[in-house]
Amino acid sequence: SFFKKLLQNCKENYDYYVIIPHFLDGEEQAHNVINTLPKEKLILLDKIIPGVTGHYGAIYENFEKDIYTALEEALPQLTKYHTINIILPQNTYYPAEIITGLNNFCRQYAFNSKVVACIKTEEIKKGEVYINVMEDDLVTLVEKILSEDLKIGYDVGVISYNETALKKIILNGITTISTDFQMMGEKAAELILKNSIEHIETKFYLTLRNSL
User: Fold this and answer.
1) pTM
2) How far apart are CA 30 and CA 164, in angstroms?
3) For residue 175, what are the β-bridge partners?
4) DSSP 49
5) What is the pLDDT of residues 104-137, one digit of tens each?
């Protein structure tokens, strides 16, 4: 793989290796490649990769817990809906723990849940919430909702992963759930400066807006 070749060609050239392990394919073998690096020089960002051994630094999201607690915080707004869909394409780098967290929440609070692999072919239904993780899917989702003459925040709800400035503006505000990317970067720099192999869980935020 390109990732393997890249690391093999420059393994001795750097003081630190800061890796965001987002792989669309080959993730099951990624730990073998990463394990060839000196662990005291390794920092993983965003998620822990099973199979990576030794003592290394990490700033990571707890995907299962984060979606559960974010939805729990949004419970007053969610009560006007009966089903929560998550749009998760098969070729995504987002982990399955997100689905586990969503299913746990829906069981606890009596919502239906569904994983939508392709939003382009999905029928948008009144009384349902849609969570997108990929930015392209948000555009498709909003277009479909508007074409069905449904009102966002009343007929259907929209929650988008990852806060951006644009989401404050689109449709008078898109509700987001997002890790603290600034904290992630700052803590990674701290690990390097302190020569630390600490594992730090990032904070995760719900930002409620009119789309819910």
Assistant:
1) 0.86
2) 29
3) 159
4) P
5) 999 999 999 999 999 999 999 999 999 999 999 9
